Sequence to fold (226 residues):
Amino acid sequence: KAGVTQTPRYLIKTRGQQVTLSCSPISGHRSVSWYQQTPGQGLQFLFEYFSETQRNKGNFPGRFSGRQFSNSRSEMNVSTLELGDSALYLCASSLEGSASTGELFFGEGSRLTVL
Amino acid sequence: KQEVTQIPAALSVPEGENLVLNCSFTDSAIYNLQWFRQDPGKGLTSLLLIQSSQREQTSGRLNASLDKSSGRSTLYIAASQPGDSATYLCAPSGGANNLFFGTGTRLTVIP
Fold:
């Protein structure tokens, strides 16, 4: 059974550009969450999607957005990139949307460098 | 806001030793707590999930306990091996898969 797949694995952008990251969850999983990991702030929750609806959102500016498709695949977009957006972006999927039972499975991440 | 603290920040032990990693959190209203390991530059690997109604979970050489009322969880690793070297993260869940992560414990097991 394939795990969570994130693409691209590495990318370099310049300030002011935008970026789109993709995440394919484990087959059958309907919930997808996104996290940002930086050396200074650690792992921080961005948002969570379930059945194409954003159910929860972390404390990030509106430049960070996402969506989920009917096949549960998800994308996140960051517009007007800043140097501080350089990070490892991790996607996680879970079988159910229930917060009380969902074990999260993470992908390998997309490492974004903003120059 | 949930604050998660992991002690120690780093730990170096000889192979074969049993060890305990500690995690404390400030808000006891959690749905569950998950322990992960992360290898350098990699994603997170789920180790154990403890539901809020449970006291402990075991998987192989790993045992995790949860005391929700006191805001504490421990991860016990028996007979450590060099392959256990990684950063270990605990993450209580605030609902809708919003996990709050600590800064982790970096474990090095010396052969």
